[in-house]
Design a protein that fits this description.
homodimer, alpha+beta, 9 helices, 25% strand, DNA-binding
DNA sequence: GCGTTTTTTTGACATATGTCAAATGAACCT
DNA sequence: AGGTTCATTTGACATATGTCAAAAAAACGC
């Protein structure tokens, strides 16, 4: 759990009482490549912290799997829309590699929010940070050509290309696998 | 200020003490079409609540203005990245119509966060909601064709097409003005 | 109402990306 | 090592969208 605590410290400092409450509810799990954290059509009931491994989130769009983000060690993972709105989501989150995760349920988290102002603050700040990351991604993808998006990816997040099958990466960049293959061939 | 208070009530309930503190720091302003709330290269120091009117946010990319979102009455507006990270941003926010706005500075807001758990919670919940909205937009734009994006826009947010010049809408959809014009011609 | 400016549409053509099918290459299992 | 599966590349062609220039339409000021 120390990796998680270290990670949280980057966002804000929690007092000991908050840390202790958090420690009491966190559940550790080791999961296998290919299994799912969340599947479409269900209400997402947990937030996960990824200690080791990687996952992808994908939609089914017109019968095709459309991967739209990845997460790696030291990040939080959930089906954001579903978790926040308490409605069934459209997304699936699947392990790309074997993972070690820590999880907390929605009710547990709300209880921590009520009980500890520090944790409410942590939630507020984390939401801010994750918003900024999504915004950056949005701007990059929306206004640049496929080639530029790929170049940006290999400089900003080379681990994605290294650890993720090409088909998923293409989908992530919003292009077909063939186009990505051709872009790579010319670099 | 009542519109703002009503709006906030959609997210969560504030106790009277928090509401009073909020009322003490909010500044009202009437601004003219064409003027700017925020310009590129500066650290954004305020969050605005838009009571009347509309604004657009745009980047300068290779000498071209690229509009990437709009806001209308009853919504919050800021240069999210810059406001949160306290760094200069790349974005400009300009009034499309005359506006009535309420504003609060970064320091004032942090002070309210410290003083009132209710307001910390409001911040946390608002961040969640705005994240979900951005995510929805991201998914729509990233994985659908221009035509579908436009159709989605006129059903989900017809006021945008009605109140905003076509060039800005095209940019928002990630296409050129000519392409948008042709799409409209065929519907 | 009339000229001026801004916004939107249209045309001709260039380019980027998608689609489908097949070939190649890599990983995996026994 | 050989066969099987899965991942990636290549080819030929279709289509969507961009670019540049000009025309048409709408909004604006006097």
């Amino acid at each position: 759990m120390n990796t998680l605590v270290d990670h949280i410290r980057q966002y804000c400092v929690l007092n000991n009482s908050a840390l202790k409450s958090l420690g009491l509810v966190l559940q550790k799990a080791e999961l296998q490549k290919g299994s799912y954290l969340i599947t479409a059509g269900k209400v997402c009931d947990k937030v996960y912290f990824l200690q080791h491994g990687s996952v992808r989130a994908f939609y089914n769009l017109d019968g095709k799997e459309v991967t739209y983000w990845f997460a790696f060690e030291n990040s939080f993972v959930t089906s954001y829309f579903s978790f926040v709105s308490r409605k069934p989501g459209m997304e699936n989150i699947q392990l790309i590699e074997d993972c070690t995760v820590w999880s907390i349920t929605y009710d547990q988290l709300q209880h921590l929010y009520d009980k500890h102002k520090d944790i409410e603050r942590l939630g507020r700040i984390m939401n801010e940070r994750y918003y900024v990351m999504l915004e950056e991604r949005f701007i990059n993808n929306h206004f640049k050509e496929a080639r530029e998006r790929y170049d940006h990816l290999i400089t900003q997040a080379p681990h994605i290309v290294q650890r993720v099958p090409l088909g998923y990466v293409a989908s992530y960049l919003g292009i077909t696998q063939e186009t990505l293959s051709r872009i790579r061939g010319k670099s």
